[in-house]
């Protein structure tokens, strides 16, 4: 079972082309084009309100794009519901975890495995494997909403893995943790994903967390792409510095 | 305890509790037997309702309509043909066969369940698409539709006149067997693939969608199954009372059953069973109190019993919003797979 679970799928690409959505005239995401490839971790960063979560919502199907398209290889996902996209292997998590509170941890994971179409026996096996892999065995039969925030975060990831993702879309999985904890968690996620040959889109607002953990960064501001590239290059980009640290000239002018 | 018996202890305990009701009802006089039988029929109904509401988190005010479908089907199939000729003299041409058809008591029970299932299938697509308040209103609308058809289509349903002359085929033993069966089926669904996915949808609809779960489909499955169980309750009810009226399947019955499931705890099967039995006992005690039989004093004003029942409901809702059982199930030995549902955690609203 472990072998099937971890079998590497053929490499593929999740691509949003000129994706956009507006609410009541406000363009939350405005013509963003990005690609995630199997096995890589793409960090989606930007200040608060820059459209990171909206972009993730467009990719996951929680929101329907009002312009542009979303493809998984040759499959057009643009009009598919979130549930159908999950069945295609494009699986998201939520910022607050959103675990199934009155179910146990094992049931949380098993429900997702069943939602992915597995039979009972397979779902239980996959659940046991994932709980062991993520170190959740000791709390497997505890009710989810009785857990600590840290365990809830891990449970949300365990649940996403039970959907057998080809692409994981993670919305600030380390929110509320300090920098070193966040880096440790994302490094661990990176390992789970690479073992499965799975691509990861990671929404994060803390630049220092994504520097060492992402293969590439995509920077958003006001719903538009600012730049994309390797972390070291992106960090030196004047436009990115401007967004994150304010305009130097303004500071100079104020003095 | 083996794993198997640990996992089956909840339904076995619940069936054991209904067996106590059977024993008390059999040992007592005819009045007690009648009360016990009706409370076992309530167990069947409330377990049916819980199969939908408990797993989906969506309260239904329409399930009494399925009970009505079961009761009327049983009436058509079991009232002796000569009597039906008199009762249904004005049947329209296309339904004339209804006056001729006759089946055994057991076939009538099965066909009543089947008809309730059909009514469930017809309404399932709506239920699958609605949540929360809209769903509550839609189920109430369904009850109103069924009630008005039964009340107004006089040539076929006898309208507000009673159905009479059903042979009495429900005994306290058949009511117990049906209650045990309902508990077994309710538990089997609750722990099934569909039941687990529906409970996930109950906890967080969008997170369940994100986990690939077709919440609407599982809601529909639970709806049809629960309709079938409530049809069984209706059939038993009709062939126990041998005469009934359309008003037995309207708001006061709905209220009585909702009190049972809410007091017991609508999220758990144990809550449904304990609520049905507990409220039946409470109602009987309050009735005797009102009559003065309990205290040996004079009778209290009519309506006192209902007032006190409403008070108990109110206090329970304040003290334990999710009922006496919350999301917990009755167990003797802790440590099994789904037996560790913390009591305190139940108080926390879902999704916070």
TrEMBL record, chain A:
Which positions fall inside the ABC transporter domain?
A: 14-247
Alphabetized, the UniProt keywords read: ATP-binding, Nucleotide-binding, Transport
Q: Which InterPro entries match?
A: AAA+_ATPase, ABC_AA/LPS_Transport, ABC_transporter-like_ATP-bd, BCA_ABC_TP_C, P-loop_NTPase
Question: Which terms does the record give in the GO molecular function aspect?
Answer: ATP binding
Q: Which PROSITE patterns match?
A: ABC_TRANSPORTER_2
Please tell me whether the keyword Transport is annotated for this protein: yes
A Pfam family that the UniProt record links to this protein: BCA_ABC_TP_C
- Keyword Plastid assigned: no
Q: PANTHER family from the xrefs?
A: CONSERVED COMPONENT OF ABC TRANSPORTER FOR NATURAL AMINO ACIDS (PTHR45772:SF9), CONSERVED COMPONENT OF ABC TRANSPORTER FOR NATURAL AMINO ACIDS-RELATED (PTHR45772)
Protein name from the UniProt record: ABC transporter ATP-binding protein
Q: What is the phylogenetic placement of the source species in the record?
A: Bacteria, Bacillati, Actinomycetota, Actinomycetes, Propionibacteriales
UniProtKB/TrEMBL annotation, chain B:
Entry keywords, A to Z = Cell membrane, Membrane, Transmembrane, Transmembrane helix
Highest taxon in the source lineage: Bacteria
Where is this protein found? Cell membrane
Residues passing through the membrane, by range:
12-29, 35-52, 64-83, 103-123, 130-150, 170-189, 220-243, 249-282, 303-322
Q: Carries keyword Transmembrane?
A: yes
Membrane-topology descriptor? Multi-pass membrane protein
The record's section on InterPro entries has: ABC_transp_permease, LivM-like
Which Pfam families does the record match to this protein? Answer: BPD_transp_2
Query: PANTHER family, alphabetically?
Result: HIGH-AFFINITY BRANCHED-CHAIN AMINO ACID TRANSPORT PROTEIN BRAE, HIGH-AFFINITY BRANCHED-CHAIN AMINO ACID TRANSPORT SYSTEM PERMEASE
Put simply, this protein is called Branched-chain amino acid ABC transporter permease
Q: What organism, scientifically named, is this protein from?
A: Nocardioides hwasunensis
User: Which classification does the entry list for the species?
Assistant: Bacteria, Bacillati, Actinomycetota, Actinomycetes, Propionibacteriales
